[in-house]
Structure formats: structure tokens, C-alpha cells
Design a protein that fits this description.
The complex is a heterodimer of chains A (109) and B (112). By secondary structure, chain A is an all-beta fold. Chain A has no helices and eleven strands. In chain A, strands 2, 4, 5, 9, 10 and 11 form a six-stranded mixed sheet that branches. Chain A has a five-stranded antiparallel sheet with strand order 1-3-8-7-6, with no helix packed on it. In chain A, strand 6 and strand 7 form a beta hairpin. The mean pLDDT of chain A is 95. Helices cover 0% and strands 52% of the residues of chain B. In chain B, the strands form two sheets. In chain B, strands 2, 4, 5, 6, 9, 10 and 11 form a seven-stranded mixed sheet that branches. In chain B, strands 1-3-8-7 form a four-stranded antiparallel sheet, with no helix packed on it. The chains are: A mainly beta (109), B mainly beta (112).
């Protein structure tokens, strides 16, 4: 079966750095996405990785290792507004998105 | 601004009373998706349209139907809502299936 694993919940301090990990086992691989979802709202696109390595976009970076079936989302200079769920999703060989259940990130002052 | 719009944002219906949720897009994307998301769970794909071609997920109950009368609009019909259908319903679009999906704000459905 296809599976995406990410921690259920993480806590971090305002101004700090946090890394949210995602591991996956899917039928083929055609890219990995990270989405941010605030409570009661729709997911918003953050990043896309299809090749190994780090993609940086402002305070957010995403890393991919295809051989390890592993990705992480790195959030720097955390702000209170970063409190949200972060969803990892992998596109399989049929271009279907396989979603993780999300990591709820709690930011404390 | 190009966007994905969902109406209504909140919908209350009665057990067994048909309900229709609406999605429209100004992105001119070919693909439109409907997802169901329950609290603290991953979004679950119900079906998607590539242009007029309808693609149903194998485990989507028959209670859920969809219509896409034109490129801009897509509807989700729940024929006989049960208590277990209470969820957030998300519409998403992408230019083609190989590209990024963009979501509307969602419709939260409550079944009484």
C-alpha cells in the first residue's frame, strides 16, 4: 500500500527553527508537495520538490531524498502566524496525490 | 486575482436531505478535484474532472455525485447525507494533472 508518515504534532518557540519530517512509500514518484493549512481553512501550496536537494523560499525550505523516501520542511524565524498544520503529499506514478494526515505545529511565545 | 471560489462556506443540512456544493475557478484550469477532509485527517480524493472526463475514485460512495457543466464550474451533489458525511469539502484545480493543485477555501458541511 501507499503511505505517508509525518509527526502528528510539534511545538516550537517564536523566533526559532523547526524541521517537520515526512517519509513516504508510494507506487512511483512524481514529486513531493508541502501545503500549509490553518484551522478551518483550505490547504495553501508551499513548496514542490522533484529532484534531490534543498529548495529555499524565504523563511521556508524543503528538502528531498528520493533514495531514502524522505523529505523535510524547515521553517526559520518562526512567527505566531506559522501555527498551522503542514501537509506532505506525494504524487505517485499515476499522478495521484497521496496525502499525509498533517503535522500540527504549535508556536509558543 | 485568479482564484478558486467555493460556495457556501458553511452548509447545514438535514439527514437524508440532498445538498449541492459549488466550486468555480477563474484560473482556466483543465482539472477540477473534490476532496473530503475530516478533522485531523488527510484530504481524501472523491473524484476529479479532466475537462469533461470524469474520474471517480474506487472507494467513493455512490451517494456522492459530481457535475461539471463548463470549464469554470464544478458541483458536488450529496444525494442522501448521513451523519458521517459531515466534513470539510475542498475543491482544487490544476492546469493539468502533472501540475500543482490550488485549493478553494472549502465548504464545511454539518448534517443534523
Amino acid at each position: 500500500g501507499q503511505n505517508i508518515d509525518q509527526p502528528t504534532e510539534m511545538t516550537a518557540t517564536e523566533g526559532a527553527i523547526v524541521q517537520i519530517n515526512c517519509t513516504y512509500q508510494t507506487s512511483g514518484f512524481n514529486g513531493l508537495f508541502w501545503y500549509q493549512q490553518h484551522a478551518g481553512e483550505a490547504p495553501t501550496f508551499l513548496s514542490y520538490n522533484v529532484l534531490d536537494g534543498l529548495e529555499e523560499k524565504g523563511r521556508f525550505s524543503s528538502f528531498l531524498s528520493r533514495s531514502k523516501g524522505y523529505s523535510y520542511l524547515l521553517l526559520k524565524e518562526l512567527q505566531m502566524k506559522d501555527s498551522a498544520s503542514y501537509l506532505c503529499a506525494v504524487r505517485d506514478s499515476n499522478y495521484q496525490l497521496i496525502w499525509g494526515a498533517g503535522t500540527k505545529l504549535i508556536i509558543k511565545p | 486575482d485568479a482564484m478558486v471560489i467555493q460556495n457556501p462556506r458553511y452548509q447545514v443540512t438535514q439527514f437524508g436531505k440532498p445538498v449541492t456544493l459549488s466550486c468555480s475557478q477563474t484560473l482556466n484550469h483543465n482539472v477540477m478535484y473534490w476532496y473530503q477532509q475530516k478533522s485531523s485527517q488527510a484530504p481524501k480524493l472523491l473524484f476529479h474532472y479532466y475537462d469533461k472526463d470524469f474520474n471517480n475514485e474506487a472507494d467513493t460512495p455512490d451517494n456522492f455525485q459530481s457535475r461539471r457543466p463548463n470549464t469554470s464550474f464544478c458541483f458536488l451533489d450529496i444525494r442522501s447525507p448521513g451523519l458521517g458525511d459531515a466534513a470539510m469539502y475542498l475543491c482544487a484545480t490544476s492546469r493539468v494533472v502533472e501540475e500543482t493543485q490550488y485549493f478553494g477555501p472549502g465548504t464545511r458541511l454539518l448534517v443534523l
